[in-house]
Backbone:
């Protein structure tokens, strides 16, 4: 651990992340980026092929076959010496492996078991498979997203998987760690992507009872129905994003566009179709770069849509979501913020067996078919 690592806010926190899909690795990534030591438990035993998981920055890996009676005790031993276990499985899977969370906490009273599922752990969907689009669908959020006259449009897998899932799980872990400071005890953190997504949508849900969002999908101020909160194509095929909601910003936008005749019509819904048409025709008269020159430095809430390709080529710096003044997160290697080569299963894991348990290869454990197995349970 470097001197910089030692002052990271989560330095000293030990996390075991059972390998899963995008949401739980994202929770682990957040913890790792802020200094926690995250050990991913991989099921794959191929050292030649990296895991398909891309969210591996600052993590280490160990390969365990949890159905092998010699592999499961290794995980049990680790969980007696860590702070957090991230469980990405469907309800009941952890218990079926002989890893009941209550029993794990009884063996390590400071352990926090974070359980992240897609659907709620109760109700008709609890045992069903699903993905981001399904969790959004039954949360009510997806029905709010999309254009007038078109089917609802999911925002890739950003909202349920990463925001409602991984980010909410990481938040749950953090508040459990905070609570532990007072109680000295860990606890079970239950997260699911349905409730996480629904909670994120608290404002738009409440807004459906107000003029801001009480019209059908695609006809409201913030969902594509409003011409001054919209995306417009430019002459060169680029796009500009407009979000001039407040009157003073709307005026600045109209000044830049040369369409001041609409100044008194901002909230006249009957005028919105003609306003949208006029805005669209105006933006098509110049390139995106030319419109940037018009609005740069102006409070018109009008900005270019940038692609990742052009941002990377321009050397754009990806940063932590949150910057702390005295205890910053770990340095982000910019090469890892634009491309991930994955991580080979088993990378760095044996070092943590030595550091956390004092185990050495050949004495306490061996490697069989690429997975760590305990040698002699009776001696440990």
Residues:
């Amino acid at each position: 651990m470097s001197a910089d690592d030692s002052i990271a806010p989560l330095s000293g926190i030990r996390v075991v992340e059972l390998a899963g899909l995008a949401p739980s690795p994202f929770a682990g990534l957040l913890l790792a980026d802020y200094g926690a030591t995250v050990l991913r438990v991989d099921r794959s035993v191929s050292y030649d092929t990296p895991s398909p998981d891309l969210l591996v920055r600052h993590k280490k890996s160990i390969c365990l076959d949890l159905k092998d009676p010699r592999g499961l005790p290794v995980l049990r031993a680790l969980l007696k010496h860590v702070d957090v276990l991230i469980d990405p499985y469907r309800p009941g899977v952890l218990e079926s492996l002989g890893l009941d969370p209550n029993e794990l906490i009884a063996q390590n009273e400071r352990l926090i078991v974070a359980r992240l599922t897609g659907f709620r752990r109760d109700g008709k969907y609890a045992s069903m498979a699903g993905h981001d689009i399904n969790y959004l669908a039954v949360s009510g959020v997806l029905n709010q997203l999309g254009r007038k006259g078109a089917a609802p449009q999911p925002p890739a897998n950003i909202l349920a998987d990463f925001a409602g899932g991984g980010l909410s799980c990481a938040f749950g872990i953090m508040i459990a760690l905070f609570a532990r400071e007072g109680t000295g005890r860990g606890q079970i953190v239950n997260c699911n992507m349905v409730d996480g997504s629904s909670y994120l949508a608290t404002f738009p849900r409440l807004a459906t009872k107000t003029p801001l969002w009480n019209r059908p999908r695609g006809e409201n101020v913030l969902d594509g129905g409003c011409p001054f909160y919209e995306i417009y194509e430019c002459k060169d095929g680029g796009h500009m994003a407009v979000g001039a909601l407040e009157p003073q910003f709307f005026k600045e936008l109209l000044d830049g566009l040369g369409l001041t005749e609409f100044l008194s019509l901002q909230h006249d819904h009957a005028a919105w179709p003609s306003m949208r048409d006029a805005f669209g025709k105006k933006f098509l008269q110049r390139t995106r770069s030319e419109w940037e020159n018009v609005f740069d430095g102006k409070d018109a809430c009008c900005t270019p849509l940038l692609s990742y390709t052009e941002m990377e080529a321009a050397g754009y710096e990806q940063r932590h979501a949150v910057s702390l003044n005295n205890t910053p997160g770990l340095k982000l290697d910019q090469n890892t913020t634009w491309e991930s080569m994955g991580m080979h299963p088993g990378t760095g894991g044996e070092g943590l067996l030595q550091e956390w348990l004092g185990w050495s290869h050949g004495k306490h454990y061996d490697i069989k078919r690429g997975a760590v197995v305990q040698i002699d349970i009776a001696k440990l």
Summary: The CA atoms of residues 166 and 297 lie 36 Å apart. The mean pLDDT is 94. The first helix runs from residue 3 to 6.
